[in-house]
Design goal:
This protein has about 525 residues and is of the alpha/beta class. The chain contains 15 helices and 25 strands. The strands form six sheets. It has a seven-stranded mixed β-sheet. Strands 6-7-8-9-11-10 form a six-stranded mixed β-sheet, covered by helices on one side.
Length: about 525
């Protein structure tokens, strides 16, 4: 395989370096890190990501004499089309395959605890051959074997060196799930420092973190290195696009990959003559240049066959795309997407006529992470919605709506699940402004063009029930009449695609300067929508 073309398109943040190693280096550890993976197979029509390509990378590193450990930053059991059937057991099977090749360690993400009862988690943990790690949470399922399976203050041994790994996940206040069978401590930094001190007392040689937290929380924990120099890096999840913070005397490195293993990290941990850790980081893009592993593909084919046996109509054509519809997470969580706009458009008519003035859906609801091109299959729509998304109808004032929408443009960095796909209005944002004041203009169509939303006027609004309840940080007014949750969004979208098919019409449009709904100012002196 030609050494996988230097580990097949490895991209270092500093330089693309060969992963071949000499005999002295071969005793080091290489951590292969991925996070937020929802499929047994690849994405982008099979051209990107996927466990099969991760396996290829692991095999290559092992052939070079490295001690390979696979790290997963959480979110794998849910949500997905397959998990609606098998509660993540297909993912456990895939991860067991990797664990047999190189030890695999996971931290539970918020989606591991999507189910309200503990039985699915009990089954998943019992079937897991890999290690579940957790320091700020516990399993309290009532099954002793499962509850004792979660490891805290975990250490690994390699080449005469000991590495401590602490593991942290999100509390409900920060977007995690509140479940009685998984109590979670919100004091992330305090828990991390306590475990780090345990490791220091035990004389470990290096300390790393495995987390499913927001990037700013990882940053705060990384700064513990100023007092605890053995803390060298944190491998995280929850964000769905690559993140990196450089190692310094005052901060550990932080690395996160892209969802569905589109981009992963390899981190070499070696020790110099004085026993000090030496870290080499590589960001690895898993694209078509990285071969699929033939043995893993047998497993992937097995689960694909089971899915088609359950849903024989999955590959049925329900419509035709006018052009590629972009449902990739790199788009739908960061900018306007023509697929996201089409989905949002179907919301406004969900409660009959007249259709609502406004609608929006958080990008994190739309899970396909792929293009939809040419024939639109039922599978494309089913994969777009990893979980149920019922809608609510209400009214808001223009001032209230502007305030609500500020939540969609908070924070910095890529790939935020709260980024909205919108319908019925267009919006202009200046991210150089303070949070809560980033919307420069919010306009609705008029007979002659566009006009700014009126603060005192009442507008009808349709949103997912998840957002009405405060999900993803949106705070909708609760003193207004509101419908019960109704009209599940997946069926609205399916009906619209089938309707277009019946009329002989294609679905979707190109986004251009004339029709775009989202405009982000690169400089505050720019004019909106120009």
């Amino acid at each position: 395989m030609k050494r996988m073309l230097l580990l097949l398109s490895c991209i270092s943040l500093y330089a693309c370096v060969s992963l071949s190693v000499n005999d002295e280096e071969s005793s080091g550890i290489t951590f292969v890190h991925l996070n937020d993976t929802y499929r047994v197979g690849a994405v982008e029509d099979g051209h990107a990501g996927g466990f099969s390509r991760v396996v290829t990378v692991v095999r290559e590193l092992k052939s070079q004499g490295r001690d390979v450990r696979v790290m997963h930053g959480g979110d794998f059991l849910y949500p997905s089309l397959e998990s609606s059937l098998w509660n993540g057991m297909q993912m456990v099977d895939a991860m067991n395959f990797m664990d047999a090749l190189a030890p695999l360690y996971v931290v539970g993400g918020n989606h591991e605890f999507d189910r309200r009862t503990s039985k699915p988690l009990i089954n998943a943990v019992k079937a897991s051959e890999f290690e579940w790690l957790g320091d700020n949470y516990r399993f309290r399922t009532g099954d002793a074997d499962v509850d004792n399976a979660l490891k805290s203050a975990f250490t690994i041994e390699s080449g005469g060196r000991t590495v401590g790994i602490f593991a942290l996940t999100l509390h409900a206040d920060d977007g995690g799930n509140e479940r009685g069978y998984v109590p979670i401590n919100k004091d992330y930094r305090g828990v991390a420092e306590s475990v780090i001190e345990q490791f220091e007392s035990a004389g470990v040689d290096a300390i790393v973190g495995l987390t499913h937290l927001h990037i700013w929380q990882d940053d705060e924990i990384a700064r513990l290195r100023a007092r605890h120099p053995k803390l060298i890096f944190i491998l995280g999840g929850h964000e769905h696009e690559p993140e990196h913070r450089a190692l310094s005397d005052g901060s550990a490195a932080v690395m996160k990959g892209a969802s569905n293993a589109r981009t992963i990290w390899t981190v070499n941990l070696d020790f110099d003559a004085n026993g000090q850790p030496v870290v080499t980081e590589n960001q690895v893009h898993l694209n078509q240049q990285v071969a699929l592993d033939p043995d893993y593909e047998v497993l992937a084919t097995k689960w694909r066959s089971r899915l088609l046996e359950t849903f024989p109509f999955l590959e049925a054509t329900v419509g035709v795309a006018a052009l590629p519809l972009d449902g990739r997470e790199v788009t739908i969580r960061n900018e306007e997407s023509n697929w996201g706009s089409f989905v949002a458009d179907q919301m406004r008519g969900a409660f009959g006529k007249p259709q609502a003035d406004l609608a929006f859906v958080n990008g994190g609801t739309l899970r396909i992470d792929d293009y939809i091109a040419d024939d639109i299959q039922f599978e494309d729509i089913a994969r777009t919605f990893g979980f149920s998304s019922y809608l609510r109808h209400m009214t808001v004032s223009g001032a209230e709506f502007r305030e609500v929408m500020q939540a969609g443009y908070r924070g910095f960095g890529p790939s935020k699940g709260y980024f909205p796909q919108i319908s019925g209005f267009r919006i202009c944002v200046d991210r150089s402004r303070n949070e809560g004041d980033r919307i420069v203009s919010l306009q609705l169509p008029t007979n002659g063009g566009w006009a700014e939303i009126e603060d005192d006027k009442e507008y009808s609004l349709v949103v997912p029930d998840f957002l009405y309840g405060g999900g993803d940080g949106y705070k909708l007014p609760k003193d207004r009449a509101v419908s019960r949750p109704a009209s599940e969004l997946i069926y609205r979208v399916l009906d619209a695609v089938l309707g277009a098919q019946a009329r002989g019409e294609k679905v979707g449009w190109a986004i251009n300067d004339e029709n775009r709904r989202y405009h982000e100012l690169l400089e505050s002196k720019q004019a909106c929508f120009r």
